[in-house]
Design brief:
mainly alpha; 10 helices; 78% helix; globular
Amino acid sequence: MHALASLDSLLQGWVGTYGLIAILLLMTVQCIGVPFPSEVIMPVAGYLASTGSLNLVGVIAVGIVGNLVGSLIAYGLAAWLGEPVLLGPGRYIGIRRDHVEIADRWFRRHGTGAVFWGRFLPVIRTYISFPAGLARIRLDTFTLMTFLGTLPWTAALAVAGYEGGKNWNRISGPIGTAGLVLAVVLVLVVIGWFVRGRRRPAIAAAEATPTGPSRDGSR
């Protein structure tokens, strides 16, 4: 909780000082794996909009643009550099192999629709652009699905921060804790689904492999 409060204070300082530029940059880099969660960025920006420091519509618009730009960068990096570079040097900017693998399985299971629905899930939301880029799906489809999935999520987070308004100091702790718990639960569900998906082919292969000679000596 202390780390969450520290991150909250840090982002408030950045957004409070640099305004829409900070929101744009933070939302962009979080989409390429740098650990600045949108669950913190956008509510903080919404809160500052409630104080009159920023405009709520501008906050939402810039958040969407930043998310879209970051997603396109991630898509381009994956399509251009490929998996070896992405998961090698990429780890120095926060790209993690296990997270990309989870997003990849989600993408393989749901196709291009995963780009839209993945925007509502932690971890997958950040990393779904990489398998989409590796698969080189149509750029216009990727852009549209990213925009449609990003819009409601970004707007909801900003409005939540805005509505919190003057009660931010009192409610930000419980909201942040609840959001963190929900994110952890969703991550565990996704990881469980991922592990289960990996076990199925192994089980099927084991069942298909002959175990030895039969009782009558035949093979």
